[in-house]
Amino acid sequence: MQFDFGPSCVGLRGSFSKSRSCRSVHRIGKRLVIQGASEGRGTGVENNGESSSDYEEGDATISVIPQRNKSPIAAAEDVDVSNGTVAPATSSSAIPAAKKRQRRTRIPDKPYLRIMPWNLWTILKNYIGKELTEIPIPFNFCEPLSMLQRLVEDYEYSEILDKAAMASDSCEQLAYVAAFTVSSYATTSNRTAKPFNPLLGETYELDRTDDLGWKCISEQVSHHPHVVAQHCESKNWICHQEFSMTSSLKGKYLQVKPLGMTHLTFLSSGNRYTWKKVTTNVNNIIFGKLWVDHHGEMEIVNHKTGEKCVLQFIPSEPFSPSKQRKVTGAVMNAKRELVWVLNGTWDNKMEASKVAEKRSQVKGKQVLETEAPVVVWQRRWPPPEAEKYYNLSEFACQLNELEEGVAPTDSRLRPDQRLMEEGLPVPQYEPIWFKKEMDTSMYPIDDSVYHLYKGKYWECKEKQNWSVCPDIF
């Protein structure tokens, strides 16, 4: 991850070498690489500077420095996930369990689908380099959720934000926010199906104030291009985003570039954060098993204090298990001094290590010690049988559960999506005024099948009897 914040910040430079206590360190120029330290240990950043903020010319070394965990940041193990709920054990938003709604934990198994004589490449090969959002995709490449519902999965680990609201300082809060942004990518590691495209004006609400302490409303506000507006609020924070994307086929992989920005505000402190999502690749489009990867740099900014966190989503190397789905990051204060170090993977967990106050000299070089890393986010993996129902997590299974009182435009009420969830065939449309048959009058010049007019339209108009017409509007 490069530290380049303009003239006011001097970047972390130099090569990284291996010390006796290092786990693994790579020489990568101006990038800061944090390889996972052993449990109960911290990391140190060594440089030639005269002070903690002078990172200009010295060689930096990441070392493992044993130190007792004094970090005020709480571990993810403090989260209460009993009874299928997801709430911080100490969250003020929790209410007595007796008042919590009983929600389902899974959906019906997906039906067996006959193997088609084509794959995804058969559909997409004619669209190389073109925008793909409007291409119709067969059902067997989809999952029974709308894109509006899929975006709400960003809040599956909302307990991280509740902990962030109680953080002792804004830099610690920023470390939590960074972990929260990474958690939103977790489900993509084993879910490659496409969600349903929302209709213009389609909405989706999710009210989880009874157990998670927040509620969310989303709406498809534009169709060309596709744009979703979303607002989520709790007693501690408010988050809103406008999401759209561009997608194109790059030969062997499909690339998705999210557009729009996410805004998060903590009500007690007034700290306001913004960030943009990173690029996503769907690999093995031509042959092989589809797999998803995320890469790029994400910058999270606290607009009240000027503090920043830079997360680097490192491209995976498919034949190197140790170099897959890595995320590294660093939290810097307004003076661009390193305060927190983040390390982990976007599909499993993230750890945070606080830079200690203590500074020491090693061979004339300045060393910044860190306290022992703590887990700030840990994924809750779906059960093995989830493969039978689109690899949905328990939280995702609850998104399309029917509820009373929702708007008539709510995604839960889509008949095509409901039929797919229940494993039932979607009825094919039967034309009212036309019928499909071969035009034998042109045979053998043209043996195509046509939709030929079968009459009665003008008679119905004369009588103003439109009872045979479906309500499509």
TrEMBL record:
UniProt keyword list: Phosphoprotein
Organism: Artemia franciscana
Region of interest called Disordered, as start-end residue ranges on this chain: 39-58
InterPro entries: OSBP_sf, Oxysterol-bd
Protein's recorded name: Oxysterol-binding protein
Single GO BP term: intermembrane lipid transfer
Family: Belongs to the OSBP family.
GO annotation, cellular component aspect: cytosol; perinuclear endoplasmic reticulum; plasma membrane
Lipid metabolism recorded as keyword: no
Domain of life: Eukaryota
PANTHER family: OXYSTEROL-BINDING PROTEIN 1, OXYSTEROL-BINDING PROTEIN-RELATED
GO molecular function terms noted in the UniProt entry: sterol binding
